[in-house]
Amino acid sequence: MKKGDSPRGGAKGASEKGAARGRPSSVRRARQPQGGRIVGLLAAIAVIGVAALGYAYSTSKNKVKTVDPNMKPLVAEGHVLGNPAAPLQVLEFGDFECPQCGNWAVVTEPDVRKRLITPGTISLRYFDFPLPMHKNTWPASNAAACAGEQGKFWEMHDEIFAKQDEWNGEATSRPKSMFVNYAKGLGLDADKFEQCLDAEKYRPQIEANAAEAERRGINSTPTFVIGKRVIPGNIGFDAFKAYVDSAIAEAKAAGPATSPAVAPAPTTATPAAPVAPSTTTPAAKR
Question: Is the pTM of this model over 0.70?
């Protein structure tokens, strides 16, 4: 009896108890064949399920696919801003939905472009590093890459970061229409841009960029590689320039054979351009 149940009364309870004890054992035995049938049925279902899974695995494992025999493995390339032959190339690993990345892009990056990239002191190579907690970061990276197909990666980069609060995962679950509107505002071929978005054409390249971050042991955004140093976090211009100055000085001291920043094969560079102003609220480091 469970706690809280009402007890049965007097003779009735005793008579029922006695009756239960007096039931012939054949009643219990009569139920056994039904239980056996259920167990047998479950066993048969299990056998059939295992056989089906084995067949599916064997057929999928042995399925023949056709691929381009000249296909080359993708390598991380990123997107270069400035002169690739600058004395120092800084690597940035960023997530378009990361609030601190947006803050750095809007607040600090304009000074970096004006005072370090435009004069030719450094170039900047941006690598996508989409973090799993951000719902819309993959579509954003894809939108920037699709804009890059039409020669305006950095313009879309700036637009996406400047308007982060319009399209991020907290604002919407369907950011595509906003990216298409940004593309129209930048003068892109909207139909071509939308087709690129729908096909996720640059997802493999974005994955390669993210894999480069993991290969380097990077686990947060933004993270900068300046010379031999890996600097995580949203650093201000003065600290950024101090790291740049140290890296260039160390490279000069080491001799011409040493490069201050080892980067992947160069891609087409884009001249430095100012970032469009925006109001961005700083947030904790992601």
Answer: no
